[in-house]
Specification:
Blueprint: E1 6-11, E2 13-17, E3 21-26, E4 44-55, E5 63-68, E6 71-79, E7 82-86, E8 91-94, E9 99-103, E10 108-114, H1 116-121, E11 123-133, E12 144-148, E13 156-158, E14 161-167, E15 169-170, E16 173-174, E17 183-190, E18 195-199, E19 205-212, E20 215-217, E21 220-222, E22 226-230, E23 235-239, E24 244-251, E25 259-261, E26 264-266, H2 269-280
Antiparallel strand pairs: 1-22, 2-3, 3-4, 4-11, 5-10, 6-9, 6-11, 7-8, 7-10, 9-12, 13-14, 14-17, 15-16, 17-24, 18-23, 19-22, 19-24, 20-21, 25-26
This protein binds manganese (II) ion.
Length: 288
Amino acid sequence: MAFRTVASIVSGQPTQDGNGVPLRRLVPGRGQRGGDAFRAMDPFLLMDHFGPLHIPPGSDAGFPPHPHRGFQTLTYLIQGAFRHRDSTGGHGTLRPGGAQLMTAGSGIVHEEMPVPEQQESGGPIEGVQLWINLPKADKGMRPGYEDLQPEAMPWRAFEGGRIRGLAGTWLGVEGPARTPAAIAYAHLELEPGGAFEHLLPEGWTVAVVTLHGEVEIQGRPVPEGSVAVLGEGAGLRVSSGAGASFMVLAGRPLQEPIAHYGPFVMNTVEEIEQALLDYQEGRMGRLA
Ligand code: MN
């Protein structure tokens, strides 16, 4: 089989968001102008790896109310607990191994904050938030929120490692996240010397994001905390000499224009201006 080689590697940039939550932001097109910045990972927009960090007691580290329009977020928790509330009445508590799929669609206001016990006593937190673009035809879809419990996507062992499939089919089992954009998304852990092979549709975007440890793809090392965008092919092969934890993202490119401003991702500048106006005038709703 012809395995995909590495087309580019970009290091995650340390930054902060929300109430000073430190995170590593992984955007392959960083530095490119406008919508081109998102071309390399289409239909994905960005990925934030927050933590691992220890929240001190009394901390309000989290993401207070803010809007979104035009895409979906899939937030996967590795350690700790987080609670979500949004303007559609959606709410839930995220536990390790679980995820939340939030559809911003035509507009939503949400917050993501530590659970009260964690705010009182402190504790560890680590997770990954992926922004998935919506096709032009679905940007105005009804906003919504769905909890994906850890039980719906258990770890599955293979020789040399284990995998948790969040979306798409992995080792014959389909992950629970359903999105208008055609995607596959999984968390993998490799033991030292372990390797993983998988077939993905030709023509799809495929990227590997290393959370902990280093992997190797067709002879090219991918350091911890970076995103490797892969070239053409069908086969994916990832190995690790010392063991690693990483995410695999794959999706059919939308190939549509992208206009992006902060929490809004649309197709044109006019639609961004409309989004700002709609938010300012309260048309994306409020948190109860
Ligand atoms: Mn948000």
